[in-house]
Amino acid sequence: MKSAASREVNKIRAQYEARFLSAWARSDELFGLIRDDRLLAKPIVWRHPFLFYMGHLPGFSWNQICGGILKWQSLNPHFDELFCRGIDPDVDTGECHWHPEVPDEWPTLKQTEEYRDRVRGAILESLDVVPRGFSNDVMAQGGRVFDMVLEHEYMHQETLLYMIQELPIEKKNRPSWAPRYVFHGGPISRSIHIPAGKACLGARFNELDFGWDNEFSAISVNVPAFNIDSLPVTNGEFLEFVESGSYDEEGFWLPEDWKWKQLENKRHPNCWLKRDDEWVYRAMFDHLPLSQVMNWPVYVGLAEARAFARWRGKRLPSEAEFHRAAFSGPDGRESSYPWGESAPTPRHGNFDFTSWSPAPVGSHPAGASRWGVAELVGNGWELTDTPFAPFPGFAPYITSYPDYSKDFFDGKHFVVKGASWATAAELIRPSFRNWYQVHYSYVFAKFRCVSS
Question: Whole-model pTM?
């Protein structure tokens, strides 16, 4: 008869094996969208080529689980180092945190795939070892290190997709399941008053099976009353800003944002094109008339969102205001999701790859918060004007990855919340924090305006 400990190990193995196999299948599917002759392409100059990410996902997994927790002998020390960490240069200065030196020549596709497959086999072997108490490291307890590696994979799947978005359509392998776009109209945005009250940011360590270091510790803050748009800004609304000429008026931009705009010669959002006199929207696999997607949320960087909000005589929400609008309610109670306590499903929003494109805003009324604010989770990350910074009690507790967050507490990265259509459901929790630079405009990120 199996002991209780053995049964628990088998349960953990079955749970995580299914999750790893599913995550790897999705990653392989995404890499399959890229033609082999484009794997060394860098469609975003601030990112490594695609091939790096094919090696980075297994490299990170090995370094955290097999090398970090289990201290196993490396399968390929050079690749463990080469693929250990990506880059996030300052888009204004080009300066970057520590990362391995970029090689003169990247490994071949075959070499990278062989490394990936060997590491995956080792990860599956580790599922029988880590839960047996091999290590006293906090990351070895309760499958925490497995959750971290899986969430890292989920986040990079989204990175891959917004990089793939930047490839010319003819440079991609169009899948048989390419999206069916939705173009219907939706509700009209209205202003919703949120009274003064508390917002609970972050989480306590024992509340989560796993959380990244920047999610801890919990803090309660007082939030003054404010008004928030019930829906995010659409392509149609942003087009008014552009065609009125206001997008090109310096007075609506912060000085540093205007300088960036002029240097980059920015004339419109990243997903738009101008062909003759017609505006075109660059979807993942198609070019669509912008007139068809007027009700989709506009994807822009923080600098552009700030300028639009100032044009409207408003501003962007803070992280605390987002939390109050999303997770509190008229009864003063905090909920796990804007809509309540039930787990995220497709009826609650456009996330977890249920659609491979944005949808018209307001398409998921079941996902509205208890204040009536719609789409705070899904259809695009929500930009805030809060610099990414530690909560009181912050500690880089992941000993094998101490610089996950602290390298970006630099005043140049800002918090984004919620989820996009390419965000895994496992990342949807109130304390999860994403962050990007002000002048990084490639992310599937939307915004809405607030006023005091």
Answer: 0.95
